[in-house]
Amino acid sequence: MVKDPAILNHGALMARIDNDRQLYQVVLEMFLEKTPQTLVELELAIEQKDGENIHFLAHKLKGTTANLGAEILKDSMLTLEQFGKNNNHSKTGAVLKDIKTGYADLEKEINNALTDLDKDN
Asked: 71, 74, 77, 112: least buried by Cβ within 10 Å?
């Protein structure tokens, strides 16, 4: 399976956690557990045109995705963070669509990585 480092840079994440495979698994599982609720909150903030909350939630997710090495999703979060900071709602819907697509790709990549870890154990 070819892994796209822009979706999830496994090597960068492993380097950040000193190649600890158990911690790698925990980090990925926690991301899958916690992120969907934050995305729901972000979507609600966009619907309500709540720039402050858009900024806060996008910033939070930007950090999380940056730590994973999920560059594509991190870049979308940065864009949305700036829109929220500037209270600019003209393109937030389009960016949210990109984020949903990016999250689906990332979720698939993480699930594949977790399956590979299970095979190795």
From this structure: 112
